[in-house]
Design goal:
Length: about 400
């Protein structure tokens, strides 16, 4: 049976991790996969996470099953983090929530759930979008359409074109939006634009599906949830997939959340039953540890404060790195303007260079980034910023 299989190339982003690890150049710089790094290039365990793990180790009494929806406390606290404690979708019990194996698990279970509601439904994704959105949606049986999003000339959101494309969507189509810190561009919708998109979605009876994987790494925990909350205020139904990989640094613990908002509490209970049954048919139930860490942090005020502080340090470092690389690129005297990097949010920006120049940076300077020229801003440091700027100026000459 296996003799007929064709080999599949490794995921381009994940391949960069291996390539970087094997590179013996002492000057190598990793601007590839979206993982937060400190000034030394490490991805440390957050102190609030370590403290929570000690508590869990001391207090955990069982490793029995937790059920398809995961931990109820985790689900409750995650929903509050996303929508705010007093949001009407929580008060009116219009949400069904499940803990998932990472943001990918949330996205995939949401896609499977959509496919149960409307088999083969069309999902509109931004051009560009996170590369893994495509298999996560398509392998669940959904069809993809694209709406223009990032304008490479203006280095900003092509908002008129985005609206123009979404005006052609059919009733019941799904619109996948990045809640904040757009991956891969770093270019986000502003508040007025979120409002316009929400009105369009409501008027055309579309379903918003918001992927929020970087809450807290753009402008702040509440600020980054502005679009999502505004959307939830506006529409009767919506889906959210969130991740604790970046803001809690729990990458390998696979901790995420899927939320389905229905029009009333009765329908929410039905949606939940369907969502949990979908989960049971895939992986039965999520792993417990990451969610136990998150609920311990979010439910204990001291740990919560510590986590918020650590997250602020990460967010500020990203903003400082944006300013540093933009100013280093100016200082080396390139004839291109890279100041747009400072206006973008979160972990990523596009340099706007060609795939050949990306290869040249890797091969000649040991600087690693995605083929699209997306850079992980966290990989910049005071030690490498001038080296990186100089190398970029060399390849774009
Ligand atoms: C990224 O975009 O680099 C991250 O979200 C990691 C991944 O899984 O692709």
């Amino acid at each position: 049976m296996f003799n007929q299989l064709q080999g599949v190339p490794p995921d381009a982003l994940l391949k960069l991790i291996v390539q970087f690890g094997q590179d013996s150049n002492p000057k190598k710089v990793d601007l590839g996969v979206g993982v937060y790094k400190d000034e030394q290039g490490n991805t440390p365990v957050m102190q609030a996470v370590t403290a929570a793990e000690h508590i869990i180790l001391e207090q955990q009494k069982t490793k029995s099953y937790i059920g398809p929806a995961g931990s109820p406390l985790y689900c409750e606290l995650s929903a509050e983090l996303l929508f705010g404690k007093n949001h009407s979708v929580i008060k009116d019990r219009r949400i069904s929530v499940a803990q998932t194996p990472g943001g990918c698990g949330a996205l995939r279970m949401a896609a499977e759930f959509i496919n149960v509601c409307k088999p083969g439904a069309t999902v509109w994704v931004s051009t560009p979008t996170w590369v893994n959105h495509i298999p996560l949606m398509c392998e669940a049986g959904l069809q993809l359409k694209e709406y223009p999003y990032y304008n490479d000339e203006t280095k900003d959101v092509d908002f008129d074109k985005m609206l123009e494309a979404l005006e052609t969507a059919n009733e019941g189509d799904i619109v996948l939006l990045h809640g904040c810190c757009h991956n891969p561009s770093g270019a986000d919708l502003n508040q007025a634009q979120w409002q316009q998109v929400a009105e369009l979605i409501l008027r055309k009876h579309l379903l918003p599906f918001i992927d929020i994987a970087y809450q807290g790494l753009g402008d702040g925990l509440n600020e980054d949830a502005h679009g999502l909350r505004l959307m939830a205020d506006t529409v009767p139904e919506m889906i959210v997939a969130s991740s604790c990989s970046k803001n809690f640094g729990l990458y390998r613990e696979r901790t995420g959340t899927v939320v389905v908002i229905s029009s009333d509490a009765t329908r929410a209970a039905i949606s939940g039953s369907q969502l949990f049954s979908t989960i049971r048919g895939h992986y039965s139930m999520p792993p417990a540890h990451g969610a136990a860490i998150v609920e311990t942090i979010l439910s204990q005020s001291e740990l919560n404060t510590q986590w918020v502080d650590e997250l602020s340090v990460m967010r500020n470092r990203l903003a400082d790195n944006r300013a540093a690389i933009a100013s280093a690129l100016k200082a080396v005297g390139t004839d291109r303007d890279f100041s747009f990097i400072t206006a973008e949010k979160g972990m990523f920006s596009f340099l706007g260079i060609t795939p050949a120049q990306v290869d040249q940076l890797r091969e000649e300077h040991a600087i690693y980034m995605a083929g699209s020229s997306r850079i992980n801003i966290a990989g910049i440091s005071t030690a490498n910023v001038e080296y990186v700027a100089h190398a970029i100026s060399q390849v774009i000459k």
